[in-house]
């Protein structure tokens, strides 16, 4: 009676507790598995299963935390984009306000004149009505003659038509500015859509126009025939505005009236390319290599966030699968090139 070891040499051997008996010419081996060893193995398996379960729970927890972090990151990026857009609009606010104020002042003046003319006509009507009620035909005729001398009806007719036409024109101008602002902000179109890039660019130019004009920047459009593009026009409008503002600031060194910005657009078959070229101060290779880095700016403290080009790069590259690159020569100027694929993935 004792312990016997059985097993394949290539695997783990097991100890069996048993005894050997002789039955005539035969040997009878009676054995049982070692319960102690079985319990040990089962304990190890149970411990491993417990560790695996804990790891799985931790993995699920970390995955959920990661998803929350990604959601927060997306929200933060969205807020940064919106903040930079509002920052860009803020820089143009004075010019836009001036553009709105001019037609509004014109409308106010016209309405004041129309009000005065209407008051005179109303007074004349009330006088004639009073004379008619008194029943004196002579009084009515005499009053009508006096009114003709006092009120030039032909002039009033023509002047009123001009005033109404001018007022409607002024209101249409204000409406166009508001539409351009809406096109830029895209308050009602945040998703991708089939869009005309020229329309987005012209709306952006209309917003930036007063500021560019005050600096004396000459903007030239060299626009080729382009297809409508599936894109996010509101986001691209922000890219256009950022590049225009940067170009306008770059050419200030040339003096008023000497700054030049040329915008070119062309169809390159598989993509659409847009170039923003200025004759500003240009950039050194060191600055050029860092312009898309977050918070990098060459402007004085308080005059730039350092996020405009970073956000523009993310909009073009991450949201549209395109490219945004720059080349520059100090003292000559800079050119920013956008390429956008004709098919937007995702």
From TrEMBL:
One of its GO terms (molecular function) is phosphorelay sensor kinase activity. It catalyses: ATP + protein L-histidine = ADP + protein N-phospho-L-histidine. InterPro entries: HATPase_C_sf (IPR036890), HATPase_dom (IPR003594), His_kinase_dom (IPR005467), HisK_dim/P_dom (IPR003661), HisK_dim/P_sf (IPR036097), Sig_transdc_His_kin-like_C (IPR004358). It comes from the Bacteria. SMART domains: HATPase_c, HisKA. Pfam families: HATPase_c. Residues 38-76 form a coiled coil. Gene3D superfamilies: 1.10.287.130, Histidine kinase-like ATPase, C-terminal domain. PROSITE patterns: HIS_KIN. The keyword Phosphoprotein applies. Residues 95-344 form the Histidine kinase domain. Its EC number is 2.7.13.3. It is an enzyme of class 2 (transferase). Keywords: Coiled coil, Kinase, Phosphoprotein, Transferase. PANTHER family: HISTIDINE KINASE (PTHR43065:SF50), SENSOR HISTIDINE KINASE (PTHR43065). This is histidine kinase.
């Amino acid at each position: 009676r004792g312990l016997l070891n059985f097993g394949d040499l290539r695997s783990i051997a097991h100890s069996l507790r048993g005894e050997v008996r002789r039955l005539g010419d035969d040997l009878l081996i009676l054995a049982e598995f070692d319960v102690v060893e079985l319990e040990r193995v089962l304990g190890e398996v149970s411990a491993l299963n417990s560790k695996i379960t804990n790891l799985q729970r931790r993995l699920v927890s970390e995955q959920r935390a990661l998803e929350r972090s990604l959601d927060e990151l997306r929200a933060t990026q969205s807020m940064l984009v919106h903040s930079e857009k509002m920052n860009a609009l803020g820089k143009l606010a004075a010019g836009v306000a001036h553009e709105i104020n001019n037609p509004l002042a014109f409308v106010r003046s016209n309405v004041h004149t129309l009000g005065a003319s209407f008051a005179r006509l109303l007074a004349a009507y009330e006088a004639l009505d009073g004379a008619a009620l008194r029943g004196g035909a002579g009084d009515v005729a005499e009053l009508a003659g006096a009114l003709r001398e006092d009120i030039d009806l032909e002039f009033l007719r023509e002047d009123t038509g001009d005033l109404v036409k001018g007022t409607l024109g002024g209101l249409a101008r204000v409406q166009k500015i508001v539409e351009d602002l809406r096109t830029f902000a895209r308050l009602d179109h945040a998703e991708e859509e089939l869009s005309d890039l020229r329309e987005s660019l012209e709306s952006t130019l209309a917003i930036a126009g007063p500021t560019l004009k005050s600096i004396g920047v000459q903007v030239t459009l060299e626009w080729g025939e382009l297809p409508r593009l599936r894109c996010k026009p509101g986001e691209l409008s922000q890219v256009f505005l950022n590049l225009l503002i940067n170009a306008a600031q770059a050419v200030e060194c040339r003096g008023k009236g000497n700054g030049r910005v040329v915008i070119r657009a062309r169809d390159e078959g598989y993509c659409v390319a847009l170039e923003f070229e200025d004759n500003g101060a240009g950039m050194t290779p060191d600055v050029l290599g860092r312009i898309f880095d977050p918070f990098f700016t060459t402007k004085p403290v308080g005059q730039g966030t350092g996020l405009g080009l970073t956000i523009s790069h993310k909009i073009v590259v991450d949201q549209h699968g395109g490219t945004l690159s720059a080349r520059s020569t100090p003292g000559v100027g800079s050119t920013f090139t956008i390429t956008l694929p004709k098919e937007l993935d995702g």
